[in-house]
Automatic annotation (TrEMBL):
Residues 1-19 form the signal peptide. Coiled coil: none annotated. The keyword Ion transport applies. One of its GO terms (cellular component) is membrane. It comes from Mizuhopecten yessoensis. This is Acetylcholine receptor subunit alpha-L1. The keyword NADP does not apply.
Length: 416
């Protein structure tokens, strides 16, 4: 019996609590009454400050949604930003118990005073970035919260020196245009851009972001500076631009391995040079056409094209060289050069064959000072040997020059 009585009391208690909550629930009449009481004498032309000497603090938070494009030629950075703003309007505070415990209210921004923010670094007309389509959230304490956004085009200084592994930093400056810092002060709630809702871009990776006060315009207006550092995704450009150039340069040097009797050495060199020039013209359309500073890959293309042209001239020289029928027709400086290179790079087997058992004293007795210091010009050369050595030397030299160009480009202009 006692337990049944306790159960009945518990049910009565629950019903009472629920009834009180039902009574405290705000109705449409409460909302309409609140709207009437708040905006009867409200003016959006006045700053929401109690005294004219007071400063209204507007706190912003920046959210990056997605990157549209970064045009290196025009220097325009296009992206979607969301900017959250918070400020307090003492005129819009109310006692929630008088309006059915209503603690928050949503309304169009046209009903209240709201900060109009402008992008100073815009690449278009100077327009407000806060649109009227975004709802303002009003708390009973008078605190206003407004999340707005817009597709923005900002000017950005682009440095293409290290293209396609370049890193770019673009700066955005946001300000409540028309108000001095003593009237409306713009502050930020975070030192970085919120990337929680960011959609990855196919060409750029975000390296870092920063949000800080901009003091350059401080005497006139209050502003916040937003820096976004981007790194280009270089895989596509390395595979489609740089790698084919390296391949063309390498296979062009193989022209000296073609037998001169086939009469195709010159045509091969011409085809390689023309194909390189044609490819150079095609990929130039994919390279940003910026003069200052010019992309490092432009220098790489220019040096590779010069090397290919010199290779063509050298091929023509070897054809004429192979048509010579005696050593007397070959210039003496070429013969001297070949003898010296042969001595340095391809020493004769007689000088290299040394008996492991022979003592050092026996070697000195066997080769006198004159034989060790003999002039390379005394070595006899044959015409086929000279021609073969010349082809091998030019083949190695072409690859060395190409290797030097690659090392220079990757060492100076490629940032890994």
């Amino acid at each position: 019996m006692e337990s049944f009585r306790q159960l009945v009391l518990f049910c009565v208690f629950i019903v009472t609590i629920l009834s009180q909550n039902a009574v405290r629930c705000a109705t449409l009449d409460d909302t309409a009454k609140l709207h009437t009481d708040l905006f009867t004498n409200y003016s959006i032309k006045r700053l929401p400050v109690l005294n004219h000497t007071d400063t209204l603090n507007v706190n912003i938070s920046v959210r990056l949604l997605n990157i549209i494009t970064l045009d290196a030629v025009t220097g325009v950075f296009e992206l979607n930003f969301a900017v959250g703003m918070e400020w307090t309007d003492y005129r819009l505070a109310w006692n929630s118990s008088s309006y059915g415990e209503l603690t928050s209210y949503h309304l169009q921004p046209s009903y209240v005073w709201h900060p109009k923010l402008f992008l100073l670094t815009t690449a278009e007309d100077l327009e407000t970035i806060s649109g009227s389509d975004f709802i303002v959230h009003l708390q009973s304490t008078g605190q206003m919260m407004w999340l707005t956004g817009k597709l923005m085009k900002s000017s950005c200084k682009v440095d293409m020196t290290h293209f396609p592994t370049d890193t770019q930093t673009c700066t955005f400056i946001i300000t409540p245009w028309g108000f001095t810092p003593s009237e409306v002060y713009l502050s930020h709630s975070s030192n970085t851009v919120d990337l929680q809702y960011f959609s990855p871009n196919g060409e750029w990776d975000i390296i870092s972001t920063s949000v800080e006060q901009n003091t350059f315009y401080e005497p006139v207006i209050s502003s916040v500076e937003i820096d976004i550092t981007l790194r280009r995704k270089s895989t596509y450009y390395m595979v489609s631009l740089v790698l084919p150039i390296i391949i063309i340069v390498i296979i062009s040097a193989a022209v000296f391995m073609i037998p001169i009797s086939l009469s195709s050495r010159t045509s091969y060199a011409i085809k390689m040079c023309l194909s390189f020039a044609l490819y150079n013209g095609l990929i130039s359309k994919s390279i940003p056409q910026v003069s200052e500073p010019m992309a490092g890959i432009s220098y790489f293309l220019m040096m590779s094209l010069i090397a290919s042209s010199l290779l063509l001239l050298t091929t023509i020289f070897t054809v004429r060289f192979n048509l010579m029928e005696s050593l007397d027709e070959i210039p003496k400086w070429i013969l001297v050069l070949i003898r010296r290179l042969k001595k340095c790079c391809f020493k004769s087997k007689e000088l290299n064959k040394v008996d492991k058992v022979t003592a050092i004293e026996d070697i000195e007795d066997k080769y006198d000072s004159e034989s060790l210091n003999r002039e390379p010009e005394t070595e006899e050369l044959t015409l086929p040997e000279v021609k073969t050595f010349m082809d091998m030397f030019l083949f190695v030299l072409s690859n060395v020059i190409g290797f030097i160009i690659f090392i220079f480009y990757f060492g100076v202009y490629i940032k890994l």
